[in-house]
Amino acid sequence: EVQLVESEGGLVQPGGSLRLSCVASGFAFSSYWMSWVRQAPGKGLEWVANIKQDGSEEYYVDSVKGRFTISRNNAKNSLYLQMNSLTADDTGLYYCARPLFEGSGSYNFDYWGRGTLVTVSS
Amino acid sequence: EIVLTQSPAILSLSPGERATLSCRASQNINNYLAWYQQKPGQAPRLLIYDASNRATGIPARFSGSGSGTDFTLTISILEPEDSAVYYCQQRSNWPPLTFGGGTKVEIK
Questions:
Q1: How far is B18 from chain A (nearest CA, A)?
Q2: How many other CB atoms sit within 10 Å of the CB of residue A118?
Q3: Could you read off the pLDDT of A7-23 as tens digits, one per residue?
Q4: Which DSSP state fits A32?
């Protein structure tokens, strides 16, 4: 059974940092691009970042470029999101998500974690 | 950036009725469009990918159509459990991958 389990988020002050983790199981983690998608309270879905299977390529939504870093450890079946210089606009539920197919080009997500809440507030 | 516009914002229908949800892209995305269902307190669920392919385990009452800039998700016979917010998402031209703003389907 495919599972994606995010680490606990938390309350962070504006300008602070937080690192999210996602542990994957039940599939060949190293064969898939992986993604983070977020959802502000009561709002829609927003793609945040993608990382290639071997970590050699990373892509971000403009609003987080230079502040967030996506990474992975295939030996630990783990995906990470380092978030720096956080603002209130970064508040939301952060999902780890797996695309439908292995390889490249399949950026529709068939497995999602339960999400972890990040709250940026003083 | 490709903008996806969903309509209507809210759709209120009775069980057994047909629901038609629209997603319009700001430029040609071929057939690279997916649909998701999200219920309160749950992660999104992939329904349709590449415009018309049902994901594994998705009931046949859900169907997708369209290409280019105009896409439709149809729920042929609404069930009470179909009450949810539905999002479209494109993968044609990225980054960024983008989602529509959502359509809330209410069952009367």
A1: 24
A2: 21
A3: 999 999 999 999 999 99
A4: B
